[in-house]
Amino acid sequence: MGSTDALLAARLEAGDDRALAEAIDALGAPVYATALHVLQDASAAQDVVQDVFVDLWCHPGRFDEAHGSLRAYLTVCARHRALDVLRGSARRADRELRYERITLLPGQSSPLDQATAAETAATVHAAVRRLPPDQREAVELAYFGGLSYRDVALVLGVPEGTAKSRVRLALAKLGTLLDRRMLDQG
Amino acid sequence: MTEFRVPLPADLRARVLAASADARPPGRGLPEVPAIPPAEAFRRAADALADLLAGLQPGQWRRPVLRDLDVQELTGHLIGVERDIQRALAGEVGVADADHVASTQPTALAQAGVPPEVTRTAWRAAVEETLELVAHRVQDRAPVAVHGMRLPVGPLLVVRAFELWTHENDVRRAVGLPQRAPEPPVLQLMTALAVQALPHGMQRAGQGSATLDLHLVLTGAGGGTWDLRLGPDGGTGGSIPEVVIVAEGGAFCRLVANRASPRDVVLQVSGAASAASAVLAGAAALALD
Question: Looking at B143, B159, B180, which one is the last position of a domain?
Fold first, then answer.
């Protein structure tokens, strides 16, 4: 085994959570600083740190020390992820608005609007039912229950960051599951 | 890249660790290795040794390999082991505490003057006979008593796979071939069994009196991470020493087979040095030879 980085990566592959803790202790601050620099938003930067280290934990084999140090790898990942967040934020806000529209109770709309909305809502609910249980529960609480991330976390008994990541994963999957034309309508 | 020095928010570390554990439970190695039954591990180890033996030149069968045995006599030793296993499976108590080496030595020495092909064929037939006998007993939890071991059929077959892999590499060393790592699914069973057997090994090595906490990380395909409390229950009354050992999975198996020293195997040790020595001595004491 060569460098400290290679050993750390090998330990991560072996499922050693202490190696992950060591990686966070050693490299969490520069990863956070990188994300914060790009996003200028502490909460969003923390989400990026979480995404970067969860990805390292789930896919340690993606790090290749032949291409640079683990510090360099993680800060580059953080920068890319933060830029993705910036690019995606407008798109995501738009999509969340559309979710709200299609799941709102029919109000003063016409019978045709009501029928269309009901059909759309049924499609969304069907897609939600296809999510993994933990993600389904989180997205239902957040979007259909109207709970904040903090309240979702309290209900599910998980950290707030975990609740956020479940909702984010769920939204990403829903985006794939639902017909884009349906999302674009309205 | 410009780097700004900002501290990590206080609760972020715990949040990231929790989210990570949620995404991938700690302990299990990557890449995921397909699980195989113990009988399959034994068969694969036997196949690998059979392939090696089938390719030996006549003179290579005479090469000294282990203790006072040459390659052919070592194969004879393995015939003897299979016969004892079969007796144990049949419930014969005479082999329960028989010495692994002494009990098989007559069969080993009986190979003198026998054509190597006959020895090889006899060993392979003995393996097939064992596989037939265990075919319907792999789920059997009743211990089989042989050579001082008391193990259910499944773990016993993993021990056998371990021994065949060890002797395959003994023969490889004797004839100048490179060592072969076990296939990851076989290695996974071997490492899991070795870890499970560590308390027994520590007792054999006279290291079983102290209580300690072990965080063991075995790297490479088929590896994993284990947290174990070793030693007598009830602890020492004071704080329990903790030791962290990181080793490559295949190398750890060579240590367990007593074919490598701790110095060759360990990638990283931290914590109580005496506890680490006790664990590694215990691992090396698991070998049957």
Answer: B180
Residue B158 shares a structural domain with residue B195? no
Tell me if A15 and B25 make a contact (CB, 8 A cut-off): yes
pLDDT tens string B188-227: 999 999 998 898 888 888 877 788 999 999 999 999 999 9
B54-92 pLDDT tens trace: 999 999 999 999 999 999 999 999 999 999 999 999 999
Contact B225 A16 (CB under 8 A): yes
State ipTM. Answer: 0.86
Are residues A10 and B225, on separate chains, in Cβ contact within 8 Å?
no
Q: Is the peptide bond before B25 cis (omega within 30 degrees of 0)?
A: no
Give the domain range for residue B114.
38-180
CB A146 within 8 A of CB A105: no
A13 touches chain B (CB under 8 A): yes
Task: Answer yes or no: are the C-beta atoms of B164 and B103 closer than 8 Å.
Answer: no
What domains are there in chain A, each with its CATH number? 4-87 (1.10.1740.10), 104-184 (1.10.10.10)
CB-count burial class (<10 Å; 0-12, 13-18, 19+) for A83: middle
Q: Within an 8 Å CB–CB cutoff, is residue B241 touching chain A?
A: no
Among B15, B242, B268, the residue to mutate for chain A (most A Cβ within 10 A): B15
